[in-house]
Amino acid sequence: ANGTELPKAKDLWYKLSPEALSRRPSPLKTAFKYAIDPKIVSLGGGLPLPAYFPFESLSATAPAPPFQTYNNPELAKDAPMISVSVDRYNHANDPGMIPLATAMQYGQSDGCKPLLEWIYEHTETVHHPPYSNWGCLMTVGNTQGLDAALRLLCSRGDSIIAEEYTFSSAMETAHAQGVKSVPVKVDLEGILPKELDEQLASWEGPLPKFLYTIPTGQNPTGGTLSNERRKAVYEVLQKYDIMIVEDEPYYFLQMDPYVPGASKTAPPPPPTAQEDPEKYSKFLSKLITSYLSLDVDGRVLRLDSFSKVMAPGTRLGWIVAQAPLIERLTRQNEVSIQTPAGMSQAIVYSLLSKWGQEGYLDWLVELRKEYTHRRNVCLDALSKYFIEPTGYAPKGLGEYVEWIGPTAGMFFWLKFNARKHPSFGKLSPLEIESKIYEAAIEHGVLFIPGSWFRADQDPVDPKVIPGEGEDADIFFRGTFATVPEAQLIRGVELFAETIAKEFGAAN
Ligand code: PMP
Ligand code: PLP
């Protein structure tokens, strides 16, 4: 951060939960700086001797930037690969290596220093947080990052707000800590700032502690909130002095605009930096504005993760927030995860330092291309099987279904009006949803019912039948990330056949 020009974050210490306030530094950790000082003979720290770590070295092979042929079935066998390795002591003084003697040792609860520095640099490049005293802390992914954020800011009996449909494990995390989640109204794009303002204006009791939001490629809706709405939501939350936790595992899975029929041609490889010297600045300028980059107050905790851009099993993520909050979270790491696994940090750091910041952007550009193509395949299949006339639906299914083409993430979200189902009235929308879910499985395809993602944890009576003028929408979540293209297309077709049959569209 450019500390000379930017102001510091607001003092938000009063936002901390009693749990966060009562955390004390571990006295043993305060002695750690002496234990690793080569001038001091340490009989103090209970550190096992690195010579007894039964790992002399670790190595991995990975694709090499700029990934021109990676994942192209005809060329991938020739894709250039690189090897990365880590050894116990790094006698060669390779700056791109965290020696195992360090990475596998007790020590840094906020994460291995070289990796953290790499992440700082990446965060500055992508988000330019607009205040000076921001910091980063490693987590074992956004699942744990949210658990930490809840402990930092909430106590039993508090509430948070979240998109009406949201990541169900996030709601479970809150629920188990006694924190109530209250839905905020969304459309297919995401949060509606005006409705949010009205909801908070008429809020009864203590205001929610934070907004939990997945603004980019939302899970489950696939929605990406526009820059304008993000600004408006931020202003509303400033007005009520509410914190923001942005959970952004899909941030870099942003896509180029959808052009109907685009899936027919294989996407060309992205240019190399030699071919297009502005490759990186173009990529960065296309990325949507994060809440972190709007955060003049320091009220945002951004949760980032390598899960969707490398692999979920790296179990590596990080939190970006104002330094006083990062300090509290470091105390929390000390007594919970300590730090993510040393092997994971060491090998991922080796790869990142071999790739370099630009090589990592090359990787993200490549992912963007791949996800854009899969999204195109999915949307072309949706048009073909849901909108165009077919044998099973001579007039198409357009009158039953609605979606917006996702511009980020892994998910697509189909909206149906349960009133159009022939059993509406005898059955409630939730019963119709569950009937369709089962019929789809019977027909050989799995989609997840939207109601499974509802942010409010109070059980609703599944039998309630809405009256005239009341909402009767039901939703299903699909993903275009997981299966090969042909299966993705077949899955969409199978679901369309199920819907045609369920809604009686054959005649
Ligand atoms: N429990 C005890 C009794 C310990 O001595 C230690 C390590 N000093 C720990 C837990 C921490 O163990 P771990 O590295 O498995 O989190
Ligand atoms: N947050 C959201 C919104 C997700 O969709 C997921 C993925 O399943 C996660 C968090 C989990 O992320 P991580 O693997 O980083 O814990």
Automatic annotation (TrEMBL):
Q: Extract the signal peptide range.
A: none
Stored CDD domains: AAT_like
Domain Aminotransferase class I/classII large span(s) in chain numbering: 106-466
List keywords of the entry alphabetically: Aminotransferase, Pyridoxal phosphate, Transferase
**InterPro entries, per the entry:** Aminotransferase_I/II_large, Class-I_PLP-dep_aminotransf, PyrdxlP-dep_Trfase, PyrdxlP-dep_Trfase_major
Give one Pfam family. Aminotran_1_2
Gene Ontology molecular-function annotations: transferase activity
- Asked if the keyword rRNA processing belongs to this entry, the reply reads no
* Listed cofactors: pyridoxal 5'-phosphate
What protein family does this chain belong to? Belongs to the class-I pyridoxal-phosphate-dependent aminotransferase family.
State what protein this is by name.
Answer: Pyridoxal phosphate-dependent transferase
What organism, scientifically named, is this protein from?
Myxozyma melibiosi
